Amino acid sequence: MAAPPSHHTHRVIGIIFGPPGSGKGTQAARLENELHVKHLSTGEILRAEVARDTPVGKQVKRIMAAGDLVPDDLIVDIVRRRLPEAEEGTGVLLDGFPRTVAQADSLDEMLTGEGHAVDFVLALTVPEDELVDRILRRAALEGRPDDTREAVAERMREYRKLTAAVLDHYRKRGVRIEEVDGTGTPDQVFDRISAHLSS
Ligand code: AP5
Ligand code: MG
Questions:
Q1: CB atoms inside a 10 Å sphere around CB 111
Q2: Whole-angstrom Cα distance, residue 34 to residue 36?
Q3: Nearest-angstrom CA–CA distance, 184 and 178
Q4: Among 12, 26, 70, 149, which residue has the least CB neighbours within 10 Å?
């Protein structure tokens, strides 16, 4: 009797990481098709809560517009609720989370609880003046409330103060980190990412 096909159900847990405007959302949307992973963006989830004026939305609206980080426990609760479903297919690509070392610790705990771990961190690097240019260009097109010059400056401060350390957290734990040059066209960046992930 032929053995049934083996469905090895290892789920990929990836993190797309980088400062505001580095292209996390743009590249994650493409990688969603390429890697067959679910793109989970905490920024998008929060913006949807604000748009629907939910209790969470009311709580985070002003914090986000100012460019500050929302409280760790609030965002960890959101991810904890969504992760199991997002992980169902072949895996998940987290965008905008974890953003503090405390969030990274919580994520590690959640994953360990289900026998999983972070497989890779894809870190996009882009010089700060280009980040600001990109975001201010988008401001003219889309009017995201946190795309003002002041809020962008605060987002960059929060990134340097609290988020940059997340990369060291994973480096110390021996997680695969792929640093990819995020400059050039979105196509060029995507090709670089694909080359890194397939090698
Ligand atoms: P979030 O939504 O995560 O925003 P962000 O990290 O500030 O980054 P962006 O979404 O602006 O940029 P991106 O890296 O996704 O780049 P994109 O592809 O859009 O978070 C927003 C807020 O939510 C936070 O400030 C905080 O308040 C809250 N929040 C979310 N998660 C949280 C958490 N875990 N903890 C606490 N608070 C949290 O590209 C940017 C622009 O450039 C676009 O217009 C794009 O079209 C363009 N672009 C992309 N690639 C290129 C390219 N190669 N060349 C030219 N232009 C490009
Ligand atoms: Mg984004």
A1: 17
A2: 6
A3: 18
A4: 149
CA 8 / ligand 1 centre spacing (Å): 34
Q: What is the pTM of this model?
A: 0.95
**Cα–Cα distance for residue pair 162/57, rounded to 1 Å:** 23
**pLDDT value of residue 59:** 98
What is the chain's Cα-based Rg?
A: 17
Give the pLDDT score at 9: 58
Indicate which residue's Cα is closest to atom 16 of ligand 1: 23
Distances (CA, A) of 129 to 21, 146, 153, 176, 188: 10, 17, 11, 28, 19
The ligand minimizing its distance to the Cα of 30 is 1
Q: Which helix (H) or strand (E) holds 77?
A: helix 72-87
Confidence of residue 42 (pLDDT cuts 50, 70, 90): very high
For 122, the enclosing helix (H) or strand (E) is: strand 120-125
CB 147 within 8 A of CB 139: yes
> Model confidence over 143-164: pLDDT tens digits?
899 999 999 999 999 999 999 9
Torsion angle defined by CA atoms of residues 41, 130, 179 and 64, in that order, rounded to the nearest 10 degrees? -30
